[in-house]
């Protein structure tokens, strides 16, 4: 038996699975020991921590996958500590519907979300700056960390790096918001890109697959393909949704199963009327109920 190493799976793509050993600061092709190799390899996620041996020809034989703390499915990445939700006010225009859904989804998967407004270099007019300030206040008050950066100007990139230490962090958000650009700004590594797909017509730089980039002493950054649509009904029931609107949790209602729509003595609606919950977030909650869960909310509109 050779020396046992601990490592992390950093990519699973066409040619094979790669493991990274922090102690050696090196990546190696990785294989599972045993007869059911194909089946075993299928179950391994990027982000999985493993124990394994290094062979003479510099390959990792995985002996054991350590228990996962969590797992994301699009793309498949395990043990994610934080997700940086990249968004923009302009180019592409802000899509708070998507942002609010992603905030719900990552809280559900028990991955801490951080909201990052990228491309602030594009916000020149007073109106644009006010818009940014408005959403920053709304999300800060709702209980989230908010950063404002520019991958282009390298503005506030240090603040972003602060969130990456000793963590597996994934960058997520709509297509074109600058996830790959930010990762390049931070790590200096150009993200591999795809040729234009005739079928999806997505840009040449559109990210595919799951991969972690080792960064600093013990940090790993994951790029993800942009979301175009999120449907929360795949992961929860309508009644669960409000439990993932963080600021709603501060208030109590007469009914335990209150949906905060037309019920009497609803703490959430009182907070809304007092201005303690923003109408933007509340309306977003209603919109998700309607769009993803088919709840009829027309009565109160
Ligand atoms: N002005 C400005 N443009 C930026 C900034 N960051 C990224 N961009 C541009 O925005 C476009 C999209 O950037 P990407 O990094 O490919 O976006 P992505 O989120 O990885 O997109 P997908 O991989 O399709 O999900 C590119 O043309 C970038 O040059 C920024 O801070 N300011
Ligand atoms: Mg990308
Ligand atoms: Zn209520």
Structure characteristics:
binds magnesium ion; 3 domains; 6-stranded mixed sheet; binds guanosine-5'-triphosphate; binds zinc ion; 5-stranded mixed barrel; OB fold (Dihydrolipoamide Acetyltransferase, E2P); 26% helix; 301 residues; single chain; Rossmann fold; Ribonucleotide Reductase Protein R1, domain 1; alpha/beta
Q: What does this entry look like structurally?
A:
It is a single chain. By secondary structure, the protein is an alpha/beta fold. It folds into 3 domains: 4-65, OB fold (Dihydrolipoamide Acetyltransferase, E2P), CATH 2.40.50; 71-223, P-loop containing nucleotide triphosphate hydrolases (Rossmann fold, 3-Layer(aba) Sandwich), CATH 3.40.50; 234-300, Ribonucleotide Reductase Protein R1, domain 1, CATH 1.10.40.50. The protein contains 8 helices and 13 strands. It has helices spanning 37-43, 96-108, 126-141, 157-162, 179-187, 238-241, 267-273, 279-293; strands at residues 4-13, 16-21, 26-32, 49-54, 59-65, 71-73, 76-78, 82-88, 112-118, 145-148, 168-172, 211-215, 219-223. The strands form 3 sheets. The chain has a 6-stranded mixed sheet, with helices on both faces. The longest helix has 16 residues, at 126-141. The protein starts with a strand and ends in an 8-residue tail after the last helix. The model is unreliable at 193-199 and 201-205 (pLDDT under 50). The structure holds guanosine-5'-triphosphate (GTP), magnesium ion and zinc ion (ZN). Residues 179-180, 206-207, 223 line the site of magnesium ion.
